[in-house]
């Protein structure tokens, strides 16, 4: 699993046997700071983006736990969220959800590709919720 720069933002994805896995990444919550540090060491993101991600990880923990932290946005006319969701055994899923009219929230089970600021916002909210 790694963070990497793509045109217009950042991709978080899992790789297997040299191929990109086509699902939302699942990672140990404790490994998120390691992913950010690895991105810094490889020089794949701007220092400004890495600083924002590191500040988000260090955010103080809140008193009301939640099952996820999210960064809301828009995808055309539809609302979307980048969510960092609590899983089993200290794992978290980093996934994009889209609110479809008359259908509700739908998981986009694919690697996430969004601006770094969206990851930082979701990470900070997940830290406040005690997810990471």
3D architecture notes:
By secondary structure, the chain is an alpha+beta fold. The chain has one domain. The chain is 27% helix and 39% strand. The chain contains 3 helices and 10 strands; from the N terminus they run E-E-E-E-E-H-H-E-E-E-E-E-H. Strands 5, 6, 7, 8 and 9 form a 5-stranded antiparallel sheet that branches. The radius of gyration is 14 Å and the shape is globular. 34% of the residues are buried. The model has no long low-confidence stretch (mean pLDDT 91).
Brief overview:
By secondary structure, the chain is of the alpha+beta class.
What is the total number of structural domains? Answer: 1
**Biggest β-sheet: count, sense, barrel?**
5 strands, antiparallel
How many runs of DSSP E, i.e. beta strands? 10
Mean pLDDT: 91
Would you tell me the structural class of the helices and strands?
A: alpha+beta
The best one-word shape is: globular
SSE string: EEEEEHHEEEEEH
N-to-C terminal Cα separation, in Å? 17 Å
Helix fraction by DSSP (H/I, runs of at least 4)? 25-40%
Low-confidence stretches: none
The proportion of residues in beta strands is 35-45%
Helix count, DSSP H or I runs of 4 or more residues: 3
Task: Please tell me how large the radius of gyration is.
Answer: 14 Å
Descriptive terms for the model:
alpha+beta, 3-stranded antiparallel beta sheet, 3 helices, 132 residues, 5-stranded antiparallel beta sheet
């Amino acid at each position: 699993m790694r963070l990497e720069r793509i045109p217009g933002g950042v991709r978080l994805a899992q790789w297997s046997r040299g191929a990109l896995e086509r699902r939302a990444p699942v990672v140990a919550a404790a490994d998120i700071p390691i992913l950010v540090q690895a991105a810094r060491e490889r020089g794949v993101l701007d220092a400004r983006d890495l600083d924002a991600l590191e500040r988000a990880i260090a955010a103080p923990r809140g008193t009301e736990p939640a099952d996820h932290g999210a960064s809301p946005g828009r995808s055309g006319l539809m609302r979307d969220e980048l969510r960092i969701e609590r899983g089993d055994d200290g794992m978290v899923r980093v996934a994009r959800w889209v609110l479809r009219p008359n259908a509700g929230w739908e998981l986009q089970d694919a690697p996430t590709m969004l601006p770094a600021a969206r990851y930082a916002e979701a990470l900070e909210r997940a830290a406040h919720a005690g997810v990471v």
